[in-house]
Amino acid sequence: MYDAIIVGARVAGAATAMLLARKGLRVLAVDRASFPSDTLSTHQIQVPGVAKLYEWGLLDRVVASGAPATRQVRFDYAGSAASPASGPGTAVDPGPAVLAGRFPEYRGVDALYSPRRTVLDKILVDAAREAGAEVRENFIVEQVGLAPGRVTGREKGGARVTESARLIIGADGKHSLVAQTAGAAVTGAKPVLSMACYSYWEGVPLTGGELCGRDRRALGAWPTNDGLTMVYQAWPIAEFESFRGDVEGNAMRTIDAGGELGERIRAGRRVERFRATPDLPNVVRKPYGPGWALVGDAGLVLDPITGQGIGHAFRDAQLLADAVSSGRPLHRALARYERVRNRATLPMFDFTAQLAALAPPGPEAALFAALAGRQEEIDRFFAMLAGVLPVKRFFSPPNLVRLVGLRGFARLAAGQRRPAPSPA
Ligand SMILES: Cc1cc2nc3c(=O)[nH]c(=O)nc-3n(C[C@H](O)[C@H](O)[C@H](O)COP(=O)(O)OP(=O)(O)OC[C@H]3O[C@@H](n4cnc5c(N)ncnc54)[C@H](O)[C@@H]3O)c2cc1C
Asked: Which residues, 6+ apart, have CB-to-CB distance to 205 below 8 Å?
């Protein structure tokens, strides 16, 4: 009998296994994948997520993998090629804005890293094993039982086995079997809003992380392992069918429309295939019940346009491990886990959905124009995007009035929208 069985051993599952094992618990983590292996995900780890790796003693391994530190960030925004914002309440044409700044310092780190998932997930799985957790790879979970906790599955080609534990933790991603089996209540949801497409390029000079928003498209470029640049783009989900009719043509047209960043990408060379997906749900689930808990995307998944999922998974792995080992009645400790997770995530969940809608340009253009040239304010904007400055604080009425004035604030409030596309 284990203290905990964790289904899924990527960023949420392996981190949770490592932390519980470090606290002396008997832990089994299983995954149908073997490591290193890739998964459909780009991989910016926001500064708070990097701070967790540093705290856990794993940042050195990420650095040693060759994933470069990204300290600078640049956001080039022109809502439409023709620029003027149009529509009700948007009589102002502030024109395009280029915001360049740096990521904030936070708990001993000052950079974003973007290690490939082949690299990051293996580092975490190794760390879980080193901490004493048992990790079974190539293990497919077919059935989950709760209270008492049981997991039935088989290693690829092997016989079916059942293992038991006091607690079953679902770290099995956005289509979680554990969440389905538990009937975890959905406490918040938004429709799918965007689709994503990404690939890897060589020979693209970057100033740091670079983002570009144009005509309902978002484009992002981040340096990753092996001297490559990960190039991401998002389109409104309603256009997925037309996108997939000509993936390469559409992806290249988005790059061509991506201003000066697009030109630099074009001058480089794509070295991997395009990967595209419309499977980008926005769902919040109650993350616990008798004998079970959820962590990572299994409990809360949001559109990748703000690149928050990995950092959230790390934070929630820590919160969950602390709750499980707190010595307090488990139900109460897990109730607190849900409260803290929701308080920390829901404003970003809503903000992310606004970005992911990739709506036509509106009053937010005035906000970007107001930030331009004000370095301290630009850095605060990037601190908010990085998940360091609370979203609610940045978008508080006093802060917006300070930035765009009373009339600009009234337009923003009337539009009930916030800044437009900003890629993961
Ligand atoms: C296109 C895209 C781009 C993204 N970009 C970013 C980004 O830049 N930055 C960021 O922070 N986040 C990003 N994300 C989000 C990020 O990928 C997720 O938040 C993160 O992977 C969640 O980690 P997880 O461990 O919860 O789940 P997953 O990474 O999905 O891992 C779940 C694991 O569970 C295993 N599993 C599932 N079911 C079973 C079963 N029955 N038996 C055995 N094993 C099972 C799977 O094999 C898998 O390995 C992106 C997502 C997408 C789709």
From this structure: 264
